[in-house]
Amino acid sequence: MDKVFTKKKFSTYFTYYGVFSLIVSLLICVGWSYILNAINEVQAYEKINIFIESYGISNSFELNLYDELKEKDSSNSIYEVNVYQFSPKDEKLTSYYDSFGKSADIVILIEEDLIDMNEYIADNFLELSDSLLSETIKNKINDYDYYEFESKRYALKLYDKDKSYSYLNDKITYCKEGEQQYTYYALINNSSVNLGNYSLESKTNNALLTWSYLFGE
Questions:
Q1: Same domain, 130 and 189
Q2: In a 3-state reduction of DSSP, which class is residue 174?
Q3: What's the rounded Cα separation, in Å, for the pair 53 and 35?
Q4: 10 with 90, same domain?
Q5: Each residue of 183-199: pLDDT tens digit?
Q6: Can you count the helices (H) and strands (E) in the chain?
Q7: Same domain for 146 and 120
Q8: Which of 58, 141, 209, 217 has the highest Cβ tally under 10 A?
């Protein structure tokens, strides 16, 4: 006997199966959207992230850094540069560091925070060995002072709170009238995937390229 769709049956069919088909279609669209976004998303090895603890940075710092690195990037692998800057006095600084600093390629911190990290410094930051400095800043090695822990260099000094020593002061605001003065250091995060031959997990040497541009020129 042939099955006949009555209006009631058709309504029931549409209600259950039509809604089911709609849900499936939506899930397929969402799935494809997720896949396409994942494909187009800039990967960690295609960008440079810098975390800066200071009272400010120049408006053009991020854009100029991107332009300079793109010019020097022979592999054409840099698609994005992000500079995250927060005040040393910010009450949420620890939270910001967890969100942006731990995954940054290069980190700039005040000396007090660096000292607080002594116990973990070797686990989190790349040693500034003679070979690394020779490769990146070449004949300017002796121009800088360094922060050492257990006879190993881990940070390059950028600014002294007595104002007798200063680098990148055209890009970074180290002091502010009426605010506490600090000494600042730059470090290379050893979890970066842009460390060239200095990490087995590396896919590019773009963190070293950035270090060279900032401190070697």
A1: yes
A2: coil
A3: 36
A4: no
A5: 999 999 999 999 999 99
A6: 8, 8
A7: yes
A8: 209
Q: What angle do CA 178, 214, 91 make, to 5 degrees?
A: 35
Give yes or no for residue 8 having a pLDDT over 80: no
112 lies in the same domain as 202 = yes
* Selected residue with higher pLDDT from 72 and 68: 68
Neighbours of 112 (CB within 10 A): 11
Task: Judge if 109 and 30 occupy the same domain.
Answer: no
Residue 149 and residue 206 in one domain: yes
Inter-axis angle of helices 61-72 and 206-215, nearest 10: 120
pLDDT at residue 22, as a whole number: 58
pLDDT at 32 > cutoff 50: no
Over residues 18-31, the mean pLDDT reads 58
Q: Are residues 67 and 96 in the same domain?
A: yes
Spatial separation of the C-alpha atoms in residues 118 and 112, rounded to whole Å: 10
Of the candidates 30, 37, 213, the residue with the CA atom closest to the CA atom of residue 137: 213
SS3 155: strand
Task: Please enumerate in sequence order all residues whose Cβ is within 8 A of that of 209, keeping only pairs 6 or more positions apart, or say none.
Answer: 69, 72, 73
122-149 tens-digit pLDDT: 999 999 999 999 999 999 999 999 999 9
Distance CA 155, CA 111 (A): 10
Distance of alpha carbon 29 from alpha carbon 32, whole angstroms: 5
Domain that holds residue 7: 1-41
Domain count, the chain: 2
pTM above 0.85, yes or no: no
Question: Is 80 exceeded by the pLDDT of residue 178?
Answer: yes
Q: Which percentage of the chain shows pLDDT scores above 90?
A: 65
